[in-house]
Specification:
Shape: extended
Largest sheet: 3 strands, antiparallel
Structural class: alpha+beta
Number of strands: 5
Number of domains: 2
CATH architecture of the largest domain: Irregular
């Protein structure tokens, strides 16, 4: 079973309640929207963005496949490989690296909470 999804509304409500009503949900939604827009713009301009306590985001170039390259279906290993029929352009992708504080905030594998989380994530639905 994968991690439980959290909607944007739930996330915004949690942030607004953590701020003791100092900011409304609408204010929090505007700030998160502005952060997302600025992040997207900075990445599109080629900047690496580091948000303390959250992580580092950076644009990376991913080389396109060339005509004649063999590709395979990872979901069907028995299927014969296919050839790329035309050159594919280089893509720009975003790589995200979580901050140490974010990673260290996860429960340890020896704690009860960590074991419960791990077993929940590994169990099949």
């Amino acid at each position: 079973m994968a991690a439980q999804p959290m909607t944007a509304s739930q996330f915004i409500e949690d942030i607004a309640s953590r701020l003791d009503g100092e900011y409304s949900k609408a204010d929090v939604r505007k700030v998160l929207g502005a952060v997302a827009e600025e992040l997207q713009g900075a990445l599109a301009d080629g900047y690496k963005v580091n948000i303390a306590g959250v992580g580092r985001f950076e644009p990376r170039a991913k080389a396109g496949r060339k005509k004649g390259d063999l590709i395979r279906n990872p979901f069907d290993p028995d299927a014969p490989p296919k050839k790329v029929t035309a050159d594919e352009p280089t893509k720009v992708v975003v790589k995200a690296f979580p901050a140490a504080a974010l990673k260290n905030g996860m429960p340890g594998p020896k704690t009860k909470k960590g074991q419960e989380l791990a077993s929940t994530l590994l169990s099949k639905k």
